[in-house]
Amino acid sequence: MLKLLSQKNSTLKxxxxxxxxxxxxxxxxxxxxxxxxxxxxxxxxxxxDACKISVLCSTEHYLxxxxxxxxxxxxxxxxxxxxxxxxxxxxxxxxx
Length: 96
Known about the structure:
- By secondary structure, this protein is α/β, with parallel strands linked by helices.
- The protein has helices spanning about 20-30, 45-65, 75-85, and strands spanning about 5, 10-15, 35-40, 70-75, 90-95.
């Protein structure tokens, strides 16, 4: 279920760019972050790229911190609908 975005101090905001580069940026952010829960804003990306990034990076975050969550800030409920069948238990989608 989508939730309204609350103001968080540690939100990584990503602009529309090449998805493969974005995946690498997020993986590095996950690797270097000491936070259990992360908020990453991908609301500027198209739906397909947002799906790809959220799936790949949620998996990466789970490998580092199985008890953590990634709060993905998206612009459309379609992203959550498309990835929900994958059962990513550590992903939460926030509507901006």
